Each structure stands twice: as C-alpha cells, then as structure tokens.
Amino acid sequence: MNQLSRLLIFVTFGVFVAACSDPATITETAKPDPWAALSDSERELLRHGEARARSCAACHGPQGISRNRMYPSIAGMSAKDMTTTLQAYRSGEIVNPLMSPQARGLSDEDIAALAFYFTHLQID
Question: What is the pTM of this model?
Fold first, then answer.
C-alpha cells in the first residue's frame, strides 16, 4: 500500500470518527459576548439601532462591513463620527443621492441608536 492510500484511509477514518462523536464532547472556544455588560437601557438602544440598521445593510453590509468599495464599512465607526455624519446628511450639509433621503427620515433617537449599534459591532 503506498503512502497516498494510507493517507486517504487515515483522513477518511478521522472524518468518520469526528462525524460519529458526541457533539457535547467537542469543545469550542466561545467568544465573549461584547454586549453582556450593557445595561437594560443600552440593550434597548442596541435593539432600536439593530432594527433601524436593516435598511443600511443593502449598501453597507448586514453587519456594517461593506462588500462593495463604493460604500464604506461602518461597523466599529465611532459614535461621534456616525452621529455627525448622519446629522449632516439629514440637514443637507452633506448631499448624496443615496444617503440624503435615507437620513432625512431619521429622528435624533434613530441616529443615536444607529451610532450606538454600529459602534458596538465586532470587526473580525
């Protein structure tokens, strides 16, 4: 039996054992929950931001990380920068054919919630 055949048998056996093993015995390193330390009011702000962020996903990606260089990634952006930028789009200080109409429909509370949400997204 040549080395390639032995390797193939070994790999096949390993896959079989892994597939048949009890998933409870397989330990995975759990990532810490970055939102675990948030207060109830912060969690509510986060939920509000997450709900409003659905319309952002088309251009900026579902987790605020854009897949298109034409649109910036906004995950992890500072709350101050996000707030200032959205307010500028809303007021007309910055004009963009896509962002201006989106921002016009945002209240101050919506902007605060979006800024809080995108600031707390993890960038992997």
Answer: 0.71
Tens-digit pLDDT profile for residues 27-46? 555 555 666 788 999 999 99
- What one-letter code names the amino acid at 35? W
Which CATH number is 40-120's, of 2.30.42.10, 2.160.10.10, 1.10.760.10, 1.10.10.10? 1.10.760.10
